[in-house]
């Protein structure tokens, strides 16, 4: 394998083969992954990260395909830009395999040198993202891709990790999947910066859009989501003097991705949100939230690694048996592994 310095230089130069190799090392948690990411980190922070999330079957891949093609052409006074795509697919709980079908759906983009598509399997990770998604975004950002689309796995209402990973989160809805009831449920709909009602040529599209409007009228104050036992602010109110006192109301765009309808309007809404973040000062806030999530995740992984390395497998297996036999509670077992409680 090429030395770390050579790989870093190649990634910064936009070498596609080097980008793919580094992404593989990062995804496999290879020996050089940490050094590579550390060297690339100073060159990140320039890309606009756009999350595309929603239930399975809403047409997320088709939307990403259409949006990426539009960004590459340029629109509404915006020049053509390079695009990175991270598409997350579910891993089978039985075989451990993943279809990675987004490469099939986005095959028309494959020949464009200004587009880089990376499919990633969740490998058991919850929340709609693969565990290495944030690192993959860093690599594509360092490689110079100006807009990075992250398509989540489509897990449903629990899929809120994207809100702490992207600058702009697009929630995709379609007619006929619950409409009014779905629109007022807590969870995934509350993380939206932009709504896309896809397959808007189907019956019920107007009702779906109206239900979303009603939900927005009911929703006041900062958007917050309780996730994994923690309160994470995904859209804090802007400073008083930001945006001339006006907050951000998520626009609702009707699209038909397979027919390329409404795509430019959706892209304009995404760009408007980017401008709002930058003008209000919330861009830096979101960068800090992304950094906090990365730090938290790395701390969890490192602490787990140290605990496992410090205790022989037999000891951990013994604790597991005691917990299963109700001779020991899990909280005491954790404290014992951390050294807070001496062995009895």
If you had to describe this structure to a student in words, what would you say it looks like?
This protein has 344 residues and is an alpha/beta fold. It has two domains: 42 residues, no CATH class; 238 residues, Rossmann fold. The protein contains twelve helices and nine strands. The strands form two sheets. Strands 3-2-4-1-5-6-9 form a seven-stranded parallel beta sheet, with helices on both faces. It has a two-stranded antiparallel sheet with strand order 7-8. β2, α5 and β3 form a beta-alpha-beta unit.
Which CATH architecture of the largest domain?
Answer: 3-Layer(aba) Sandwich
Structural class: alpha/beta
Low-confidence stretches: 92-98, 124-128, 224-232, 234-245
Oligomer: single chain
Give the class-level CATH name of the largest domain: Alpha Beta
Average pLDDT across residues?
82
Corresponding CATH superfamily of the largest domain: P-loop containing nucleotide triphosphate hydrolases
Strand order of the largest sheet: 3-2-4-1-5-6-9
Total count of domains: 2
Could you name the CATH topology of the largest domain? Rossmann fold
Could you describe the largest sheet, including whether it forms a barrel?
A: 7 strands, parallel
What Rg, in angstroms, do the CA atoms define?
22 Å
* Fraction of residues in β-strands: 5-15%
Q: What order do the SSEs take from the amino end to the carboxyl end, as H and E?
A: HHHEHEHEHEEHEHEEEHHHH
């Amino acid at each position: 394998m090429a030395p770390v310095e050579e790989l870093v230089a190649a990634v910064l130069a936009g070498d596609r083969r080097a980008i793919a190799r580094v992404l593989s090392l990062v995804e496999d948690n290879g020996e050089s992954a940490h050094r590579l990411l550390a060297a690339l980190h100073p060159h990140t922070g320039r890309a606009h990260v756009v999350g595309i999330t929603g239930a399975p079957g809403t047409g997320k891949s088709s939307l990403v395909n259409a949006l990426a093609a539009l960004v590459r052409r340029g629109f509404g006074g915006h020049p053509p830009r390079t695009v990175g795509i991270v598409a997350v697919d579910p891993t089978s709980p039985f075989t451990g395999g993943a279809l990675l079908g987004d490469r099939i759906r986005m095959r028309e983009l494959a020949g464009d040198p200004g587009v880089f598509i990376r499919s990633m399997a969740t490998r058991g990770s919850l929340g709609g993202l693969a565990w290495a998604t944030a690192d993959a975004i860093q690599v594509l950002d360092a490689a110079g891709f100006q807009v990075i689309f992250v398509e989540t796995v489509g897990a449903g209402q629990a899929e809120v990790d994207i809100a702490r990973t992207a600058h702009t989160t697009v929630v995709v809805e379609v007619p006929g999947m619950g409409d009014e009831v779905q629109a007022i449920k807590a969870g995934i709909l509350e993380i939206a910066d932009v709504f896309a009602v896809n397959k808007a040529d189907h019956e019920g599209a107007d009702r779906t859009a109206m239900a979303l409007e009603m939900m927005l009228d009911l929703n006041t104050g900062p958007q917050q989501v309780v996730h994994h036992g923690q309160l994470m602010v995904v859209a804090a109110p802007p400073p008083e003097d930001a945006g001339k006192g006006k907050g951000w109301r998520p626009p609702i765009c009707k699209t038909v991705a397979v027919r390329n309808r409404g795509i430019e309007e959706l892209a304009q809404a995404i760009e408007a949100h980017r401008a709002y973040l930058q003008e209000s000062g919330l861009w830096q806030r979101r960068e800090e939230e992304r950094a906090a999530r990365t730090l938290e995740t790395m701390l969890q992984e490192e602490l787990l690694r140290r605990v496992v390395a410090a205790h022989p497998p037999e000891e951990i297996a013994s604790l597991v048996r005691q917990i299963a036999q109700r001779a020991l509670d899990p909280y005491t077992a954790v404290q014992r592994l951390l050294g807070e409680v001496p062995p009895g």
